[in-house]
Amino acid sequence: MATGILIYSYSGNTLAVAERIKAAIEVTTGEQAKIERIMAENAGPNSGNPIILKDIPRIDQYDRLIIGAPINAFSLCRAMTMYLSGHAEFSGKHVGCFITQHFKHSFLGGSNGLKQMVGLCEKAGGEVEQTAIIHWSSPKREAEIDDAAALMLKV
Known about the structure:
This protein is α/β, with parallel strands linked by helices. It has one domain: Flavodoxin domain (Rossmann fold). It is 34% helix and 29% strand. Strands 1, 2, 5, 6, 7 and 8 form a six-stranded mixed β-sheet that branches. Strands 3-4 form a two-stranded antiparallel sheet. Helix 1 (13-29) links the parallel strand 1 and strand 2. Helix 1 (13-29) packs across helix 4 and helix 2 packs parallel to helix 3 (110-123). The model has no long low-confidence stretch (mean pLDDT 92).
């Protein structure tokens, strides 16, 4: 089964989680996984400028997708929202979603952002099977990443 890990990462935190998930998939299942990055101009968390997506990964070769993005301003980041709203076609694909956020508590944006992501993935035709939130400032961050990787193996 071909796995694509589709992410937007501004600071590198979401990318670090994606790399751990990729390693877990490859070590546990022996299957290959590939990280595909959405790249955007003007996508900084404090930028008020319009976002321009400049790299839009092709995902048609993947049977399952794992989608990851950070929280900005208590919501799903603008770059991933734009991608999922206008460029995603997930019909027939199994999907796992994860969010990274700075705060230690999910009610400070993580739960809302994850709900947004799941809704957009389902609107694009995907079947979301697993979800996770990683709280970057939590002392339990490493365990949360391990738990997220284990959940994404079930997608």
